[in-house]
Specification:
- 76% of the residues lie in helices and 0% in strands.
- With 136 residues, the protein is mainly α.
- Helix 1 runs parallel beside helix 3.
- The N and C termini lie far apart (99 Å).
């Protein structure tokens, strides 16, 4: 069997496995954060969580597929490790950037919600007081 094909198979198995593991981990642990961002609306948090996971899969698996082809033929075992380390390293960086991007956007949404809650008075105004008259 051609060593380039072996490298492709290993790359696909590891990349897809990493993508699935990261997506499941982020989905499971992000539910609480999303519920807080969305003011306790559990159904909406679950829907947004699912949409984020689908988008995560589409972007990352699309990248894995596009990054599959290599320029050089692999001649020996050392070449397999070098090609895999480069490809898997880039895939891991893309997964990390995607994660940080999701967290950044959700944190922005959360901060906006916190700011809106802080602008509301704790109790509604109960009356009006005239300003003091100067010189009185």
């Amino acid at each position: 069997m051609d060593l380039t094909v072996v490298a492709y198979v290993v790359y696909l198995v590891v990349s897809i496995s990493l993508t699935v593991w990261v997506a499941r981990t982020l989905s499971r642990n992000g539910r609480v954060f999303l519920a807080d961002v969305l003011h306790g609306n559990e159904k909406l948090a679950e829907a947004v969580n699912h949409l984020l996971v689908v988008g995560f899969y589409l972007v990352n698996l699309g990248f894995v597929a596009l990054y599959l082809s290599g320029d050089d033929d692999i001649a020996d075992t050392r070449g397999i490790f070098e090609a895999l380390s480069t490809k898997l390293g880039v895939v891991l960086l893309v997964l990390g950037v995607m994660h940080l991007g999701n967290v950044w956007v959700l944190n922005k949404i959360r901060r906006r919600g916190v700011m809106e809650r802080e602008q509301l008075p704790p109790v509604p105004p109960q009356g009006w007081t005239a300003p003091p008259v100067a010189g009185a």
